């Protein structure tokens, strides 16, 4: 079987990853290849050459001066993105060797064009409903959709009946660590991930905190997070997988502090696979990944100060958890092998149908 993975066209599929979507696509591609499948990937140029996969290229956007001067022209990045996905879908129509297309992009075009190509198209819903994807799925009632959590499936339930296949982590990659005398927060530095809340929790509880991840929103970093940094609350940069695994494994606990309905919470699964217990804000699918007594601190609508106080009070319980039990829980509930097997079975089901 040959599977085409359609990723975001803004970021290459290569570590250190720009976000969870890129990490998911990279690990899925590698897992499918281990199961004997051929994999084709469309993403931004520069994906990991060690994956040994075929990359789909598209023609760059060419606009005349007249077109650029059109006062009603949408942002050029939006035009370029749409043009890229249009080319890719047309390329799939001319590729009888490809059996299944797995869409992990956040663009509407692969969905609305899916009836026009011979291959079945699977779309994984990595986010809550967006104004691009929602109407596309309403226009395409035959679309095959997967949600990364029960929470995401429920969010989309009035639009599409999504099958649930949870994300997973590789226990050989995220190995157990001894713990340490500091906390860790990892992820994209953006308002919806809210690392500033983690900084406030650590300060209130009297713990050191190390924050890692790409600064995806510079304004948020400068206005909300930087003022909280000091000798105890430090930003350690955008780390590769090895560095991040070491950081997580040598931390007493991980803080996961979303300010939105987190679709899944991959960073929590990664930390737990290292044996590091997680103190998490109960938002969206994160409450399916981290279960009591894993440290669910608040529900949607709780104000920030109350969340910080409750989390600081709960921190001693979380830090004291048995690291071996934490890792065992991750192996039983957050397995990458289970994720890849579930997608492979779904592909076979669609091809057989």
UniProtKB/TrEMBL annotation:
Q: Per its UniProt record, what InterPro entries does this chain match? A: Glyco_trans_1, Glyco_trans_4-like_N
Q: Which domain of life is it from?
A: Bacteria
Q: Which Pfam families match?
A: Glyco_transf_4 (PF13439), Glycos_transf_1 (PF00534)
Q: Any idea which GO molecular function terms this record carries?
A: glycosyltransferase activity
The alphabetized UniProt keywords are: Glycosyltransferase, Transferase
* Record-annotated Glycosyltransferase subfamily 4-like N-terminal domain positions: 19-172
Residues in Glycosyl transferase family domain copies: 183-301
Give the protein's recorded name.
Answer: Glycosyltransferase family 4 protein
């Amino acid at each position: 079987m040959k599977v085409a993975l359609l990723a975001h066209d803004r970021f290459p599929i290569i570590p250190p990853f720009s976000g969870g979507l890129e990490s998911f696509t990279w690990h899925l591609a590698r897992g499918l290849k281990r199961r004997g499948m051929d994999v084709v990937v469309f993403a931004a140029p520069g994906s990991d050459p060690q994956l040994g996969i075929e990359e789909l290229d598209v023609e760059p956007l060419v606009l005349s001066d007249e077109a650029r001067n059109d006062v009603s022209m949408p942002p050029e990045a939006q035009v370029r993105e749409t043009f890229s996905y249009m080319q890719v879908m047309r390329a799939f129509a001319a590729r009888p060797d490809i059996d299944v297309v797995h869409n992990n992009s956040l663009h509407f075009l692969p969905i609305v064009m899916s009836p026009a190509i011979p291959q079945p198209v699977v779309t994984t819903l990595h986010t809550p409903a967006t104004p691009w994807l929602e109407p596309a799925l309403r226009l395409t009632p035959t679309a095959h959709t997967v949600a990364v959590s029960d929470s995401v499936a429920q969010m989309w339930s009035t639009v599409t009946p999504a099958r649930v296949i949870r994300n997973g982590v590789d226990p050989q990659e995220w190995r157990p660590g001894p713990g340490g005398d500091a906390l860790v927060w990892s992820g994209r530095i953006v308002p919806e991930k809210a690392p500033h809340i983690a900084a406030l929790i650590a300060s209130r509880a009297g713990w050191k905190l190390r924050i890692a991840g790409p600064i995806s929103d510079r304004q948020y970093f400068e206005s909300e997070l930087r003022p909280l940094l000091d000798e105890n609350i430090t930003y350690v940069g955008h780390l590769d997988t090895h560095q991040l695994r070491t950081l997580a494994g040598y931390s007493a606990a991980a803080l996961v502090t979303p300010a939105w309905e987190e679709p899944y919470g991959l960073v929590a699964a990664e930390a737990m696979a290292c044996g590091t217990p997680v103190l998490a804000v109960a938002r969206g699918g994160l409450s399916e990944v981290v279960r009591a007594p894993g440290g669910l601190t608040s529900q949607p609508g709780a104000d920030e100060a109350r969340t910080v106080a409750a989390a600081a009070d709960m921190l001693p319980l979380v830090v004291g958890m048995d690291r071996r039990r934490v890792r065992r829980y991750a192996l039983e509930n957050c397995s990458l092998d289970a994720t890849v097997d579930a997608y492979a079975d779904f592909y076979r089901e669609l091809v057989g149908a």
